[in-house]
Amino acid sequence: MYPVTLTGVRLTLREFTDDDIDAVLAIYGDPVVTEHLSFEPRTREQVAATLQTVTSAAQVEPRTEYSLAAALPETGEAIGFARLAVDTQHPGQSSGQLGFALRADTWGQGLGEQTVMLLLRLGFEQLALHRLWGARSPANDVSGALMTKLGMIEEGRIRHHLRIRGAWRDSIVHSILENEWHTAQTG
């Protein structure tokens, strides 16, 4: 499925373009934003390489990587990076992992909630997946509260899941099933 465009009340998810390098650098290059992510701040060159990778992956059939710009509808400016990766290790299992990061000056405005809602919509309504899950840093309570608010259940902790900044870090996993999503949307 290409191109993908999903519009919410205050945010649009759209395909990345080469013009988004500086916008993504403002997210992935910021130590405050990357504090709870699975990698350290990235350089402009690393961001350019990431965008090249995701724009190439968007063209692959069947598509399994949906890395999308979270953009303001009025201007088209990318203020976030949203990702849904369909599980290819277990074909037919119909699950996907989601993740997102927003520019720090947009925090606290409900845009994270809108981003995850649109990813859930993509996964359940357009890709017909059965299960979506996300992992967060145990210290990222805001992300945990957001996923819980959207109906995602905390499943547990993966101990020493990632090695970041020279130390092991656990991850907390949250998930939602398609019937839970549809019940929340209709009820």
Segments where pLDDT lies below 50 for 5+ residues?
Answer: none
Strand order of the largest sheet: 1-2-3-4-5-6-8-7
Strand tally is: 8
Helix-and-strand structural type: alpha+beta
Q: What's the alpha carbon Rg, rounded to whole Å?
A: 16 Å
Termini separation: 29 Å
Largest sheet: 8 strands, mixed
> Mean pLDDT, rounded to whole units?
93
Order of helices and strands: EEHHHEEEHEHEEH
Task: Note the beta-strand portion.
Answer: 25-35%
The share of residues in helices is 25-40%
Task: Work out the helix count.
Answer: 6
What is the strand and helix layout of this fold?
Layout lengths: L4 E3 L4 E4 L5 H8 L2 H4 L9 H14 L7 E7 L6 E9 L8 E8 L8 H16 L4 E6 L4 H9 L3 E12 L2 E11 H9 L1
Parallel strand pairs: 5-6
Antiparallel strand pairs: 1-2, 2-3, 3-4, 4-5, 6-8, 7-8
Question: In a few lines, what is going on in this structure?
Answer:
By secondary structure, this protein is of the alpha+beta class.
